[in-house]
Amino acid sequence: MSTTAIPGQQVDLAVRFQKVRQRTLALCDPLSAEDMMVQSCPEASPAKWHVAHTAWFFESFILREFLPGYRLFNQDFPWLFNSYYQGFSAFPEKRLRASFSRPGLEEILNYRAHVDEAIEKLLGQSADAEALRRIELGLHHEEQHQELLLTDTLNAFFSNPLRPAYLERDPDSAATNSIDARAGSRPLSFIEFPGGLHFAGHDGQEFCFDNELSRHKIWLEPYALGDRLVTCEEFAAFMADGGYQRAELWLSAGWDTVKANGWRAPLYWTDREGDWRVFTLRGEMPLEQVADAPVSHVSYYEADAYARWAGCRLPTEFEWEAAVEGAPIEGNLLDSGALRPIPAQAEGGPQFFGDCWQWTASAYLAYPGFRPLEGALGEYNGKFMCGQMVLRGGSCATPAQHIRASYRNFFQPETRWQFSGIRLAR
Ligand SMILES: [Fe+2]
Fold first, then answer.
1. What is the CA 102 to chain-centroid distance, rounded?
2. Rounded to whole angstroms, how far apart are CA atoms 143 and 333?
3. What is the β-pairing status of strands 216-220 and 196-200?
4. d(Cα 97, Cα 100) in Å, to the nearest integer?
5. Cis peptide before 214 (omega within 30 of 0)
6. SS3 22
7. Parallel, antiparallel or unpaired: strands 223-226 and 269-272
8. Distance 54 CA to ligand 1 centre (A)
9. Partners of 94 in the beta sheet?
10. What is the torsional sign of CA 19, 21, 22, 27?
11. What does residue 197 show for φ and ψ, rounded to 5 degrees?
C-alpha cells in the first residue's frame, strides 16, 4: 500500500477551512437560539439560516461532486437551504426563512459538523484541482455570510423594542478607550490624482470572484478623492440644512424613495425628543459620541444627495480602484473587533478599507471579457448585473482576509441595512 503525500496547498487550505468555519460559530456566541431565528426585513436572513446555508454550499458544490460515497445529511436540505441557484434546485421564498423553526438549531449544528468532517476527509486525500478551487470559493462565500450575519443581526436587534446590544461596550477596555480617543476627526481634505491610463480588475493569479475579471484598461481624467469618509456630524449638518426636504438635491428615484418611506435620517438613527441616537452592534449611542465616526447605513440615494449638497460627487469604481491599488489592506475591518465605524485617526490613512462600504457612482456591470463560472455557480454574481450600484472597500464587519482592491460589492440603490457610507470625489 502506498501513501500519497498531501500537497502543502491542501494543508494550508485545511487550516484556513477550520478557521473560517469556526469564526462563523464564534460570531453566533452572543446570540440565543431565539435571536438566531429573527428575520426582521425581507432582505435579511436569520443567523440560523446563514449557519445552515454556508454548510449547504460545501455539500452542494463540493461534496456531492468530489467526495465519492458522500452521504447527504438530510434529503430535504439540498433544496431547503438553496438561496437562489435556479440551476441547482427549487428553493423556498427568501422572506419565509424565519419560518424555519424546524430543523432545530442542534440539527443545523450537527449538519455543519457532518459537512466539516467530510470536507476534512476530502482535504486529507489527494483532491481534484477543481474541488480545491471550489473549497476556496466556499470559504469566501462563508466570509460574505459572516458579514451578512452581523448586518442582519443589527437589523434584528434594531427592530426589537428593547434594542439589545450584540456585544456590550466595555468602558474600561483598552480597545474601547483607544476608539474613543480618536474622536476629534481631522478636517476633510482631498487627495489629487492625475488620471491617465490605468488597469481595473483582478490579475487572476490568486483567488477572486468572477465579477472582478477580466483586468482591463481604463482611462481616467484628473480627479480628487476625500481623504477620509464623511462623518455622522457632517451628515447631521446636511439634515439640519433641510437635506431630506429639498428635492433639488436628489435623483428622481431617490426623491420618490425618500417620500415613500418617510426617510429623514440614516437607518438606525432615532430621534429621542430632539436628540439623535445611533444604534450599533454595541448598542444605542448618542450622536455626539459617534459624531466623528463615518456615517453608515445610508442608501446610494442619500450618498448621492449628500455629495451634491457638499458640492462634490461620488467616485466611480474605477477612480476608487486606481487610487487604492497597491495600498495595504489596513483599516477597521471585522478583525479589529470594534464592530462599528470609528473616526479617522489624526495621522492615519484615508480609510480606503474598512469602516463602511463606499458607494460608487458606477452601475454594477460586467467587465470586458467577463465569463461566469460554469454550471449553477455561474449564478453567483452574473445574474445580478442589472439595477445595482457598486460599493468598494469593505466594512467593520468584513473579514480582513476577504477584501482586496479589485473587490466589487453591489446592492440596489435604496439598500441601507449594510454598513454603507460615503466617500466624496470631485
Ligand atoms: Fe450564499
1. 28
2. 12
3. antiparallel
4. 6
5. yes
6. helix
7. unpaired
8. 7
9. none
10. positive
11. -85, 125
* Cis before 126? omega within 30: no
Length of the chain: 426
Identity of residue 276 = W
Q: What is the pLDDT of residues 190-219, one digit of tens each?
A: 999 999 999 999 998 999 999 999 999 999
Place of cell 449638518: 237
Cis peptide upstream of residue 341 (ω within 30 degrees of 0): no
Helix (H, G, I), strand (E, B) or coil at 360: strand
Please state, as a whole number, how many other Cβ atoms lie within 10 Å of the Cβ of residue 240. Answer: 8
Residue with cell 456615517: 295
Please write the tens of the pLDDT for every residue from 152-192.
999 999 999 999 999 998 666 655 655 655 555 689 999 99
Name residue 136's amino acid: E
For residue 369, the CA-to-ligand 1 centroid distance in Å is 25
The fraction of the chain above a pLDDT of 70, given in percent, is 95
Question: CA angle 206-52-9, nearest 5°?
Answer: 25
Q: Which residue from 371, 361, 423, 366 is spatially nearest to 394, judged by alpha carbons?
A: 423
How many angstroms separate the alpha carbon of residue 384 from the centre of ligand 1?
Answer: 13
In b/e form, how buried is each residue of 309-346, taking b as 16+ CB within 10 angstroms? bbebebbbbbbbbbbbeeeebebbbbebebbbbbbbee
Residue showing cell 474613543 = 180
Integer distance in angstroms from the first to the last C-alpha of the chain?
Answer: 68
DSSP H helices in 47-160: 47-58, 64-66, 77-80, 105-123, 129-159
Ligand 1 centre and the CA of 277: distance in Å? 32
What is the whole-number distance in angstroms between the Cα of residue 353 and the centre of ligand 1?
23
The CA distance from 23 to 31, in Å, is 14
- Å from CA of 83 to ligand 1 middle: 6
Q: Is the pTM of this model over 0.90?
A: yes
CB 242 within 8 A of CB 292: no
The single residue listed with the C-alpha cell 456585544 is 167
State the distance from the centre of ligand 1 to the C-alpha of 248, rounded, in angstroms.
39
- Cell numbers describing residue 356: 463602511
Q: Which cell numbers in the block locate residue 369?
A: 471579457
